[in-house]
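Journal club prep, notes for RB
We'll compare a predicted complex against what the paper describes. Inputs for the flavin-adenine dinucleotide case:
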Amino acid sequence: MKAYAFDYVRAATLDEALALLERAGDGGKLVAGGQSLVPALNLRLLAPQLLIDIAHLPELRGITCDDTTIHLGAGTRHVELANSPLVAEHLPLLQMAVRHVAHAAIRNRGTLGGNLAHADPASELPACMIALEAVMLVVGPGGERRIDAADFFKGLYETALGPDEILVRISIPRSPAGARFHFNELARRAGDYAMAGLAIAMHGNSPQDMRIRPVFFGIGDRPVLARQAALCLEQAASLQDGLAAAQQALLGDLDPQDDLQADAGTRMQLAQVLLKRGLADLVAQGRG
Amino acid sequence: MTDPLSPLDRPNSYIGRTVPRPNLERLVEGRGTYVSDMTLPRMGHVVFVRSPYAHARILEIDTSVAKQAAGVIAVVTGAELVEQCSPWVGVLSHLKGLKSAPQHAMAVDRVCWQGEAVCAVVANSRAQAEDAAEQVQVRYEELEPVTDMRTALEPHIPVIHPELGDNLAFERSLDAGEVDKAFAEADAVAEAEFVFGRHTGVTLEARAVLADWNPGERRLTVYQGTQAPHMMQNIFAKHLALEEAQVRVVCKDVGGSFGIKVHVYADEMATAALSKRLKRPVKFVADRIESFVTDIHARDHVCKGRIAVKQDGTITAFAIDDLTGIGPYSMYPRTSAIEANQVVNLVGGPYQARNYRARARVVFQNKNVMCQYRAVGHPIACSVTEGLVDLAARAIGMDPLVIRSKNLIRDDAYPTDSPSGLKFEALSHHASLAKLKQMMDYDGLRAEQKRLRQQGIYRGIGIASFIEVTNPSAAFYGVGGARISSQDGVSVRMDATGAIIVQTSLTEQGQGSEALTAQVVASALGVALEKVRVILGDTDNTPYGGGTWASRGAGIGGEAAWQAGKALRMNILKVAGTILQTVPELLDIDQGVVVDKATGRERIGLDEVARITYFRPDTLPADFQAELLATRHYVPRQYPFAFTNGIQASWLEVDTETGFVTLLNHWCVEDCGTIINPQLVDEQIRGGVVQGLGAALFEHCRYDERGQLTNGTMADYLVPMASEMPDIEVGHVVSPTLESELGAKGAGEAGTAGAAAAVANAVNDALDPFDVTITEIPLTPSVILKALGQRSG
Ligand SMILES: Cc1cc2nc3c(=O)[nH]c(=O)nc-3n(C[C@H](O)[C@H](O)[C@H](O)COP(=O)(O)OP(=O)(O)OC[C@H]3O[C@@H](n4cnc5c(N)ncnc54)[C@H](O)[C@@H]3O)c2cc1C
């Protein structure tokens, strides 16, 4: 199929992009890497009158680091995340996750901002953002807003972004020393969106100060922080001791639905297996 | 000691050598000519308005708004196009009782599947045609769809074509030997119901056709991605009220076919009819969404099977009851009964058991049409047979390789036949099995499997023996009244510089028809491969023939090329003999030079022979006329089909907690007779295996109960991709057919025939400790977890 006819502008600055977006109203649509948007256009699921290309905005570029925080420009392409030494050093979870995002050709164009704004419930990166307690810097006609990742993802392809706002930067606190991470997903084929996946960030060594954030994706309409399961683990004497209760708690944390790939029961089973394997990995990392 | 020389042992033979395909560079440099990329002056693009319902009456089509849309050339409804294109019925007389209803180029008053075209919009661009198509208003009255093949014959289910009386398109029964007695006397009987998901053959280039009716010469030229140009020439002529001579079908590069492009598609017929109606070129390229609901689907069988076995491992009987749903029409002209018919023919085929009972029923349903896709019927027959053999082995506690070696037809038993009447010239089941066993290190894998099981790692070995129908004679279609040629023709000529031009009726869609033809001709003549240019895919410019389908290119077209090459060699040597004042029998051609046969001494170059022939015929005797063009045709006569055989094995791991299957290795030993180009054969096997693995694990056209395809995109329909594919090791045993000089049989479908069976058997082998048997493909995580009873919530 061919897309409906549309106009196209490449914005030179963030301000220009914002102005264009405001002027275009409902008919405007941002395009970054185009890897989710263009298929939707070609399927005629969307009919924007104007595409505003933000892939080259300088304000959206760059990966930087200060004493407490890593800043990722929303225009950072997946391939840049994968190859960044800063990301490798400070955000190993993201580096692990991005390998699972699509295929090389798509990673060469797709952007972090586009991925988060698209908010596919089976996407890897939104789950990592919640696990890592990222903060989204969003700019709109009214100025800047900062949105916690936990409040950013609202549902199926739905975020807290307003129609006239642009996601500019993602800031992620540097992990404390000794933090451990786990990433795993079950996808039928490499590069596919996952049938079920799990990103875990954990820090603290003694049972008293241990904090763990297991975030599941591909299970519901958005990434889900399994709070009850986390509590079970944080209260247990060890990860292994907490496993059974945490697996049980997933029945309350998660609400999988039937879909083409799997029914709800299968999904819950997969989530429980992922948790078991994730904890085993974290325990092994703790030993190593 | 050396073997005696065969006719194939030529001075500079390319037979048995891996040489690069002549078309390789052109294609990888992006210089192919695919119909999808072609444009002609004044060309219109057609887009079809398709039914959103599986079954509905068309009440009204309002095209008035669409006709006014930008760029629109014409909007034509199905009822209007009847004027240009007559309907067809997909039956063959040798498939007794097969019935179907007339099918039109576009639905006239009723739609019978989701995706059937009802109206055509022709515009200056595809995008404009799509815009206008949205403006066509169709009012439907939804009718009850028939979707479940298991209930399609029940009395309360509507009959899709009331004039046919019921939804049964075809039924065949067979009873050979003493089946009841064999089951009664068996030491063990195993049975299962095998379920095969509907899937399709996803070609890289979608179906594409560009029809150009030229009123000035009253000729229709159709550029089409098709496997059978001469068949299409006949069909276009017949249904557009033309003489065959008024139709030319040109088939240049084709981005994959796999049987998908050997059928008559209603929308392609409509495109040709529109060209005639509008007196201008009209092009149709299916987009991927259309492909999923209109390219033929395949498989979709439920087959109950039983096997009788003695305690010593002797298999005494097979019995099957197969059911398949084919959509609302039997496809034209090859029909949709062939797959079920093949299942009946092939079950039990590799084995000695003489007692066999089979029934197959083919029913109509309101889903996309189904027809022949790579390995037609073989994967069903092989999965049922090999699944049953494994069940029998398990029932008597015998190793799967041992039970096979006890029962496979002996290598010295040929010629022989099967209970279903198939004639086997020479097969090599035991040699193949022995080779497989050694290639895969069977005993080593069994030891590893045992060791890993203790660590909770579940790996399985699956074996599948198979036979493959290749080199089909007229027995396939011709005897049933279809104008589908089973013979092929090849013309070989030498031009004025000594270069060789070959015209063949084979077509090329990636198999390497061009390469094998060039290799055979170069070998027969004795010239360098670079001197040979092959022309194919043009009904005006090639001999008449079948084309490329059903594993026939090398065996039939290759033999015609061999014979034509030999004939031209003799013609050339006659000229050379005249020039050299000797007899042609004492001469030969080596590397483009005429030589003394006995000594190899160079006598005269082919360029010189050509120069004299074409420019100085005055120097030749007055009673001698040189003929530097030879044409030969070939079709097998002695055997209706050249059967090949082989055996595959899969080694995989099942994650019993997630239901995921990881393919670790795959082996295929096959016997396609003479191997012309080992790399091309290996590619055929590997590609075929991958398509079989796709069926085993991934590919599935999933319909809901209203007849809606729910996963018709490349995101939701999972094709096998490189990351999930194991190494595929290919081995060969060579038993040439003696019917032809070349001795080549087909290799195109062997891989697909047995791959899914091997995987299913391996999964069950891996799950042996859990005492479950899964006989359903695709083997998705859900299917496996369900069988293991491992689902939460
Ligand atoms: C075959 C295939 C497989 C894929 N597999 C995966 C996978 O496994 N996992 C996965 O996570 N993704 C996958 N993707 C999606 C891929 O990661 C995309 O790159 C990503 O979802 C979108 O990024 P983009 O830059 O291409 O965004 P675009 O397609 O350009 O835009 C997507 C949406 O985000 C909006 N948008 C873009 N940038 C901004 C911004 N800065 N501020 C506000 N709104 C913005 C756009 O308006 C649009 O609505 C796959 C894509 C394909 C084609």
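Talking point for the session: Chain A touches chain B at residues 1-5, 43-44, 186, 188-192, 195, 251, 256, 260-270, 272-273 (CB under 8 Å).
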